[in-house]
Structure formats: C-alpha cells, structure tokens
Write a structure and sequence with these properties.
The complex is a heterodimer of chains A (about 575) and B (about 400). Chain A has about 575 residues and is an alpha+beta fold. Helices cover about 35% and strands about 20% of the residues of chain A. In chain A, the strands form six sheets. In chain A, strands 2, 3, 4, 5, 8, 16 and 17 form a seven-stranded mixed β-sheet that branches. In chain B, helix 1 runs antiparallel to helix 12, helix 5 packs antiparallel against helix 6 and helix 12 packs parallel to helix 14. The longest helix of chain B has about 35 residues. The chains are: A alpha+beta (about 575), B mainly alpha (about 400).
C-alpha cells in the first residue's frame, strides 16, 4: 500500500513535469509565432501613419506631402440595421450598397469601410449619425508634381507604407516614430486607449534632386521618346564631385498619385535596375587602363586601315574605315579595331582589374531600392573571343548609373563617388539629424584623368562621334555608345534593336554636372552620336544657364565653324 | 490518538499564504482594466479585488476554525457533511435559491454573494472516503466496499452533469478513483470501472461529430473563432509572455480577448505577464504544496488522518494540475478554477478550509502537555530506530493490506 502511494504520487509529479515541458513548448519555442498572432488581433488594422515626413528637393521645394483626411471604419457588432445603413452610406459615397452591406455584416469588430474619405463626404456621413461606424484620422500621400521624379520618389500603399523608391528606402525615417496612430482595442472592439499623437511627425527628407533640372530632363525625355519612337529611355544627371543625383528619370513612367493605374514596366527604375551592354562608352576602361599602365601615349599609333580585326572565329568591324589612328583618335572616333588592339596590349587581367576599379560589376551603393550589380566576367571565365568583345563593351552588363559614375571619375580627377539621392534627414523640429557623407576612392591618377578628359573633349569636336553634344560656349567631354541588343529569340545580336547612349560632363575643365542619356530601341537612327548626343546638348545648355555657368566665347567660335 | 508533532507545518502555511497573496495581485491585474462593457454594469477597477479580499478574510476564518477543530469531530460528522453537501447541490435546481449563469445552474444564492456547492462536495467526499477507508470493516478485496463509494460518486456526478458541470464531475471522479487506488483497492475493480468507459468510447466512434468535438482541443487553430477560441486565446497569452513576460499589469489578452482571465484561465494571464519564469514558479509552488501534504500524511499515525491528509493534498494538487493542463491545451477545456489564485469565493473558502485541516493534521489533536511531548518523542525515536517503524506506526490500517495479499 505504501507502494501504491509512491506510484500515485509519482504519477501526479510526472503530470506536473509534463506541464513544465508544455509551458516551455508554448512560451519559448512558439513565442515568436504567438507574439505575431497576438499583435494581429490586438492591433489589427488600426495602425495608421498619420504624419509621414515631407520630401523636399535640394532647394526646399515639396515633392511629396500629406493630405490630411479621415478613414471610415465600422464595428459590425454595433450595427443595428445593416441594410438601411448600407443604403444610406452607398447614397453618400456612391459605392455599391451590396459591398458595404457585406462589410457591415462581417465578423470581427473592426472593418475598414472606406479609406481616405474626401472631407465633404466625411461631413455628410457624420451627419447621418449611423451607429457603429466611426472615423479615424488618416493621411493620403500626395505628389504635387505628379509623375515628376516618380522613379526616385517611389510611392506608398494605402497604409502609407513605402513600397518603392525613397519612400521605401527611407521608410523608417519618414514614418512617425513613437507616435504611431495605434488604437489598442479589447476583444469587443472598443477603443481602450488612443495612442494618438497628432503632433508626432516623421522626419523630413531633403533630396539631392533639383526640381528645375529634373523638369528639364523629363521634358527632354518626352521629346526623345516621341522623336525616336523609342521603347524606353533613361537619363541621370549627377554632380561628379559629390555623387549628388541632380536628376534621374526613366521612360516609360507613372504617376505615383494614381498608382493603381500604373503597370509594372512603367514603375521600373531602369537607370539602376536594368542592365545593358554598353558598347563604346565602355572604352573608358581600356582607355584609362592603357594610360594608367603607360602602355600607350597620346600619339601611339594603331593601324586600323583594314577596318576589321579577326579574333578567333569572330571578325569585328569598324563603323567606317579609318586608316592609321593615334590613341587619341581611337577613342575620339570610337574605333573598335583600335580599341581591341589596345585591349590586347593590356591583357584580360588588367582589363578586368580596371573595369572593377571603375565600379563595374558591383552596386554603386545608391540609396534607392532594387539596384543590380551588373556582370563583368573574371578573366578565367573569358572565352577565346572575349578579348575582342570586352574592350568595346560587349559581353558585359552594366547599368546606366555605373557608366555615369565611371565618367564622373574622369571628370573629378580620378575619384569614384557614391551616387545618392538623399542629402539630409531633418527632424520635424527642423534639426538636421543625418547628412550624407560622401566617401571618395581614388581609382585613377590625376594625370590619367586629365589626359583622358582631353581625349573625351575631342569626341564632341570636329572628327569626333558626338558633335551633336557640343554645347554653345563650353567644352563638353563625353563618349557615345551604340550597342546592338541581344534578341531574346535568336540569342544573337539583333539587327534592328540598339541601345544608343551618350555620357559626358560639362564644362569639361570644371564640371558642374555629369550626365548619361540612354535610349533603348530608337527607330530610324541608331548611333549614339545622332540619337543621344543631341538630347545631352539640349539638357546641358538649359542646365548650364539654370546653374549660371558662364560661357566662354572662344568655344563659341569653334562651334560655329563646326556647324 | 497520539500527537504527531508539536507544531503545525509552517512551510504549508507559508506556501498557501504565498499563493493566495499572489492570486490577489493577479486578480487585481486581471480585473482592474474596466472595459466599456463592464463599465455599463457599474464595475469599478477595485470591484473584483475588494470582493476577493473579503473572501480571503472569510477564508482565513474558516482555515483557523478547521485548524482548531479536532480531527475526531470531522470523522464523526463526515456522513452528515456529505449529506448536507448533497442537499445543497440539489437546491441549486430550485428557482430563486439557485442561480444560473452562462447556461449552467451551479450556484446557490447566498446573500450578498453566491456559493458553488460542487466545491463543498469535493471536500465532503474526501472526508467521507477517509472515514470509510479507515473503518475496520473496509476491505480492499471486497466488491461492495468498492461499489459503495463509486455509487455515491456516481450519484454526485449525475447531478453535476445535470447542471451541467463537466469539470466538477471529472475532477470528483479522478479524486475518488485516486483515493481508492491509494487505499490499496484491488486494481481489478478499478479496471472494471474503466470498462464502463468502453461503451462511451464506442458511442464516440460511432458518432464522429461527438468525437471531433471532444478532440477539438488537440488542434484549436482549426477553428480559432469557434470551438478553439478560448484555447487559442490562452496560447496567445502564454506565448506572447515568452521567458520574462510582458510585465505585471501589461497584459493585452486580459482586455476581454481571453475569456475567464480572472477565473479559470488566470494561469494564462500569469504566463503572459510574468512569463515562463512566473508560470514555473506557480507550478513549483503547487508541487511543493503537494509534497508538504504528502509529508504530513506520512507523519500521521492513524488511517483516517493519513487518508484525509493524502486526499486533501490530492484534491488541491489534482485540481491545479487539471487547470494547468486545460490552459495549456493538454486536456479538453473544462471550467475548473485554479486553487487559491482564481477569482471565485467558493473555491477559495473550501481550499483554505482544506489547508486548515491539513495544518491540524500536521500538528495533531489535543492540547500539548508534557506527557504528550514525551510520548511524541518516544514514538519518533521508535520510528527511527526500528526498521519497520513506519509500518508499525501505521499498523492500524495495515490490516486489510495483509489480508488482501494472503
């Protein structure tokens, strides 16, 4: 019988032990899952960001603001006559009464009836005094300039959560901290505490974007798209010394105020998320590498008189026959044959190393979401014909921003900058809490940068490929690019589809801006010098006067003679 | 009757006091947030807390009375007590006297409050069984000695099911069977009782919807808004507590998400606010309380005292254990309060009375005299020195055991 007592007590003790294990299971192993669940029911649908920070351009012009509205919700358990209420509400809002009826009849204690109701509609609804419905303050994000800089700004969802662009990247700074509009509710849906602090605001952002420059870029993009019936286009304008993005625009574009009407491809920020084969603009790699490694001088000559060069099974042609060219002329006239000869002198190891040094094959680090690194194959993965492709910008995948950054390095005397669109975060009280600190990395010597800059200046002069980019009164340094696109069907270079580009900076001797124009699939003409260079010039001329850059008379004469 | 010890068991008193005070804090935490629904009923933040404290004071009186009462008195009044508890239980069904709530009639109107006779039934049953098992004619190999208590239990259970109060029926059944097993009752009989459950099982299998309802507790997430609601809410409360808890008074689940957060499911609230650490402390306190009860039982020198002490310890420990199991989803949801901690006057009064009796048993009957002391010392010395000391000390009820094995 003592045995019985021991066994019985042991069984009970074991029961307690099982409880302990079970508690560990629920409270420790399932802690995170259940916490999530708890949050879901305790705060469901009631977290409303009321005062998101404003986004300004570099001169304090508002690019994204809030419209203070109210949102309508209902507590189905308090609705007395769903049918009648639904009818009345439908009369006021113009929404089908059936949909409202379904919501009024649903389970739970908190259902949004309509988000962000217009003020006059809200007033009418309040006058009906229907039981079981209520309003909470809400805000609608509004972009006063419409589609201007939409790819930089991005957009938000119905709960004012950043989905794209700066709105996404800087969501935590923009959203109201500590004063989130939270309604703690009990299970019966009654508001127990309103964590409302209407005074609480998110931080404001000051962008590097200049609304004026952005507008010039956008208008030019529109006319380019129309003129060349292009599939897409992108332009980026940057301060080459600081990495400040002054303007960035893509086509096709979208209006962030009516995000529901936009499509996926319109929202792509292709300037940083899409790769392309750059073609001749990539000759900056062999050009600077050859100078830096002292393989060539400006006057080294290359015999391009055959107009073509054989690399293994592949024959690469020049656009025109050139004869014997100096190194300077190889770049100026964008000779493929000459460039490949320079590339062969360098060897694949050094080409790869300089391509990497100039920032190709890795993200630039711009503060926008979705950037891609592109692709530069390491030398060991080069095929036999690669040495005939990489120097002239084939077999590599780059983004427009990467190309622009490499040219900015030449413009600023040899430094690789970090491109960025946000310059400052400002607290609601007006105190700057964060400033972008640019870090520069020297990738080219001062001498190489200066020499290559001089070569790039000749590109827009007589005998260069981009006379169309020449600007009245100032030297433009730049480079054209014309690349065949790969036809996804045949997996060969397409005969019709090209990417035409021009990248450069102005004024060449003291650059105020570096800019790249990339036009995808222009119809009729394909050469970068013909399609992209004039767009560069159009923008640059306006931008220089907007930035009050003085004209140098000497240059004007030259231009006149050129034309 | 001999004196077992000079003093009452101080650890038992301390553990009980600790649990009761802790319970009062948790009840305040659970009920001090007045939801608009409660506000309509003129409930103030201190409403439940004040009532609970009043019950605590009454309970202290009962505990002291039970402590002062001679064990002999209990033994004599065992049958009467059981009869009274039965009558009170029946009274629940009378209009005006009985109070129904939530579709069940479980309470008696007892101005200004109510009383739940099912709690008293448990105590009366334990005292009755202790007396019955210590009778000289109680034999563990006699079927009628088995059927008598089972029959009484059955009658009570039928009344419970009429109320309905499945929780009380279940816990009374477990308690009775546990005491019968403890007394050395032939396991054959107990198993026969188990055979009674077979038709029930067959019925469940024949009607799968019933089975599903019973087994709903195994996967409450299947129907978190319906049958699984309470358990899901309990899990959410426990789970969001984590190791350290969300902090005393910080529970979100008590905002009417978790039904019965101040009564049957107060343990989930403890878990949410004080975390795994707090929950483990509570579980351990109950286990220690149980161990103290066993120790007191082992020190008693007569069968009635032994069975009474064991039975009362099991009554409290099993109820706590079932409550833990319910809140953690180990057994189907049944409305059973957690002793000492849950809000609920009847449960607190009865359990405090039980502790009073246990304290009495730990001290022994009669006034302390020099002779008693000496006798006690001699008894204890004997017990230590003799290898069979314990057996001899318990010889009063070793009899049936011997016969059963012969």
């Amino acid at each position: 019988m003592r045995k019985r007592a021991i066994i019985l007590n042991t069984v009970i003790g074991f029961g307690f032990f099982i409880v302990l294990l079970r508690l560990v299971d629920i409270m420790v192993l399932n802690h995170a899952r259940l916490c999530e669940r708890a949050k879901m029911q305790q705060l469901k649908g009631e977290e409303v960001q009321v005062r998101r920070g404003t986004i300004f351009d570099r001169h304090g012009r508002k690019l994204a603001v809030n419209l203070e509205l109210e949102s309508l919700f209902c507590d189905p358990s308090e609705i007395t006559s769903a049918e009648k209420s639904a009818y009345v509400l439908s009369e006021i809002t113009g929404k089908p009464s059936k949909a409202i009826f379904t919501k009024l009849n649903s389970r739970g204690h908190f259902v949004w009836l309509e988000r962000k109701v217009a003020p006059d509609v809200a007033r009418k609804i309040k006058e009906t005094k229907i039981k079981g419905i209520g309003f909470v303050p809400d805000a609608k994000r509004f972009y006063p300039e419409g589609s201007l800089a939409s790819h930089v700004l991005g957009f938000v969802d119905i709960d004012n959560k950043g989905i794209e662009g700066v709105e996404l990247k800087y969501h935590d700074s923009l959203s109201t901290s500590g004063g989130k509009f939270v309604l703690n509710r009990d299970a019966s849906g009654k508001t127990l505490s309103q964590g409302v602090n209407m005074e609480s605001r998110g931080n404001n952002l000051v962008l590097t974007i200049d609304e004026g420059l952005q507008y010039m870029v956008e208008t030019e993009l529109d006319s380019v798209m129309e003129k060349w019936r292009a599939a897409a286009a992108a332009i980026i304008m940057m301060d080459p010394f600081t990495g400040d993005i002054l303007a960035l625009a893509d086509r096709p574009s979208f209006n962030p105020n009516v995000i529901a009407g936009s499509r996926d491809f319109e929202r792509r920020n292709r300037a940083i998320t899409d790769c392309y084969e750059p073609g001749s603009t990539f000759k900056i790699v062999i050009g600077t590498a050859a100078l830096e490694e002292k393989i060539v001088s400006l006057h080294s000559t290359f015999d391009c008189s055959r107009g073509s060069i054989e690399i293994g099974r592949r024959v690469v042609h020049d656009a025109h026959r050139h004869g014997v060219l100096t190194f300077e002329e190889v770049i100026q006239k964008s000779s493929n044959v000459g460039s490949i000869m320079v590339g062969m002198k360098l060897g694949k190891e050094r080409i790869y190393r300089y391509a990497k040094a100039l920032g190709f094959g890795e993200k630039t680090g711009i503060d926008l979401p979705g950037e891609v690194p592109g692709l530069i194959r390491p030398p060991e993965r080069w095929s036999g014909v690669s040495i005939g492709s990489v120097p002239i910008g084939q077999e590599v995948a780059v983004t427009p921003l990467q190309v622009l950054r490499a040219y900015a390095a030449v413009a600023n005397g040899g430094f690789l900058v970090t491109p960025h669109v946000v310059s400052r975060i400002v607290s609601p009280g007006g105190r700057t809490t964060w400033t972008f600190m640019s870090e520069k990395k020297r990738v080219l010597s001062q001498k190489t940068a200066e020499t290559f800059k001089d070569i790039l200046k000749t590109v827009t002069e007589d005998g260069g490929t981009a006379k169309g980019a020449a600007v009245n009164g100032n030297y433009v340094a730049g480079k054209t690019g014309t690349a065949q696109m790969i036809d996804p069907r045949t997996r060969r270079y397409s005969k019709e589809k090209y990417v035409s580009s021009f990248v450069g900076f102005v004024p060449a001797d003291n650059p105020k801006m570096a800019m790249i124009v990339v036009i995808y699939e222009p119809k009729g003409q394909t050469y970068g010098g013909v399609v992209a260079a004039p767009a560069f010039r159009q923008i640059a001329e306006k931008a220089l006067s907007y930035l009050d850059v003085p004209r140098k008379e000497g240059r004007k004469e030259m231009l006149v003679s050129a034309q | 009757m001999v004196v077992n010890s000079r003093y009452h068991d101080r650890w038992l008193l301390l553990l009980t006091a600790g649990l009761i005070l802790f319970g009062a804090i948790m009840i305040y935490s659970s009920t001090s947030v007045v939801t608009p629904v409660l506000a309509k009923k003129n409930v103030t933040p201190f409403f439940y807390f004040k009532r609970h404290v009043t019950t605590m004071l009454a309970g202290t009186f009962f505990m002291y009375a039970a402590f002062r009462a001679r064990t002999e008195t209990l033994k004599r009044t065992a049958v009467v007590l059981l009869a009274v508890s039965f009558v009170l239980l029946i009274l629940v069904f009378l209009p005006k006297i009985g109070v129904s709530a939530g579709g069940a009639r479980r309470w008696l109107r007892l101005w200004p409050s109510t009383f739940q006779p099912s709690e008293l039934v448990k105590l009366a049953m334990v005292i009755f069984l202790a007396k019955y098992m210590s009778l000289p004619e109680y034999r563990t190999d006699c079927i009628s000695c088995f059927l008598m208590p089972i029959g009484i239990m059955g009658v009570f259970q039928i009344v419970f099911l009429k109320q309905p109060d499945f929780g009380a029926a279940m816990s009374l059944g477990i308690l009775t069977v546990a005491m019968l097993i403890l007394s050395g009752m032939r396991l054959r009989y107990v198993m026969m009782l188990g055979a009674l459950l077979v038709p029930l099982g067959v019925k469940l299998i024949m009607e799968p919807y019933r089975l599903r309802r019973v087994l709903a507790f195994l996967d409450p997430w299947k129907d978190p808004q319906g049958s699984g609601f309470q358990l899901v809410q309990s899990f959410i409360a426990l789970g969001s507590g984590g190791i350290a808890g969300v902090g005393l008074g910080e529970s979100k689940q008590k905002l009417a998400f978790l039904p019965e957060s101040h009564t049957d499911f107060i343990f989930s609230l403890v878990g949410e606010e004080l975390g795994l650490i707090g929950a483990l402390v509570v579980v351990c306190l109950f286990f220690l309380l149980f161990l103290r009860g066993i120790a007191i039982a082992n020190k008693t020198k007569d069968p009635f005292g032994y069975y009474l002490a064991s039975g009362l310890s099991m009554m409290i420990a099993l109820q706590a254990l079932i409550n833990f199991c319910v809140t953690t989803g180990l057994v189907p949801t049944k409305g059973l309060p957690l002793p000492f901690i849950s809000y609920g006057g009847s449960s607190l009064l009865i359990n405090m009375t039980a502790i009073g009796i246990l304290l009495r048993l730990s001290k022994g009957d009669g006034p302390r005299t020099v002779a008693d002391k000496t006798e006690g010392l001699i008894e204890r010395k004997k017990a230590v020195m003799s290898v069979y000391g314990r057996r001899r000390a318990l010889s009063g009820f070793g009899r049936t055991d011997g016969q059963g094995n012969s």
